[in-house]
Known about the structure:
Layout: H1 3-16, E1 26-28, E2 35-37, H2 38-43, H3 59-66, E3 72-74, H4 93-104, E4 110-117, E5 120-127, H5 138-154, E6 158-161, H6 172-176, H7 178-191, E7 196-200, H8 206-209, E8 218-221, H9 232-239, H10 250-255, E9 261-262, H11 268-279
Parallel strand pairs: 5-6, 6-7, 7-8, 8-9
Antiparallel strand pairs: 1-2, 3-4, 4-5
Amino acid sequence: xNWITNYVRPKINSMLGRREVPENLWIKCPxxxxxxxxxxxxxxxxxxxxSGYHMKMPAKARIRDLFDGGVYExxxxxxxxxxxxxxxxxxxxxxxLRDSRAKTELEDTIVAGVGHVQGVKLVAVIHEFAxxxxxxxxxxxxxxxxxxxxxxxxxxxxxMFPASGGARMQExxxxxxxxxxxxxxxxxLKEAGLPYIVVLTNPTTGGVTASYAMLGDLHxxxxxxxxxxxxxxxxxxxxxxxxxxxFQTSEYLMEHxxxxxxxxxxxxxxxxxxxxxxxxxxxxxxxxxxxxxxxVAEPA
Length: 300
């Protein structure tokens, strides 16, 4: 316990009438250095208004924003073994889990739900990067598989929003086993004739990229997202060469055929609805009648 910080300083502030100001009221744009008020950023879907830079969006905020009116059925987190390897590095894995749960108010890194996006029913699976870097462990793998099973049962598409540093090292081989398990779940959905769409967000790396994040029928990506298996610095140190500017960004991957579309966050919901209606062979939304100032002449 820090006696000065926790006791003396609050006493002095109360005597002088000072108010504690939260440290996260202003967010700095990583691209331009512009300072943006927190509420303005949140109201703009966590996109910097001036530069268009896409900040990381909390999973709970993303799933509410995705579904019509923010209404959806949350899928429960399956119960799995906690800390199966009794892992410890500089900190106990059990303590890391406890801290991440307190920080995010989530059981693990996956948030999933069933709802409608512009009238199209789908299952959405979203990674929370703030929970241990969105890493893939037993709990996340089980939650993803259950979400695929729900999509098959509901006969509806599944949309995945990965944001991950890869497999969770604290679970070792048990984490790596989630790569083939989730891959099988993807194949089950495809065998059922249901679409699987991946919306790649920043960052999508490691074992997640090596499995379900790159197995979609269609791959969308947010602007500027880092998408890779190994990081740029690791590759440069390995091959001893300088990599091109913008390497591993969503724009670079689209130019080289690994991403189908780069879509701004504000356009993701309408884009998903339009694409899924085509894939599900549903009729498009009715076009509004266009009024003309003058009558159109009949052909002779």
